[in-house]
From TrEMBL:
Keyword entries, A-Z: Membrane, Transmembrane, Transmembrane helix
Organism per entry: Bacteroides graminisolvens DSM 19988 = JCM 15093
Name used for this protein in its record: Oligopeptide transporter, OPT family
Parts of the chain that traverse the membrane: 24-42
């Protein structure tokens, strides 16, 4: 996906919204999603 993203940037396509990156809630949302992913991996590992 990194190669696709780099190719899009090179081609002049930028899907990043700067106002979202400067918003504090974007960090909170990312941290929450990361915590949910960690909890999922822990529960999945404990199951098997």
């Amino acid at each position: 996906m990194g190669v696709v993203s780099a190719a899009m940037r090179f081609g002049g396509i930028n899907l990043v919204q700067e106002q979202w990156l400067q918003n504090t809630w974007s960090e909170v949302l990312a941290l929450g999603a990361y915590a949910l992913l960690i909890l999922y991996f822990i529960k999945s590992a404990m199951k098997k």
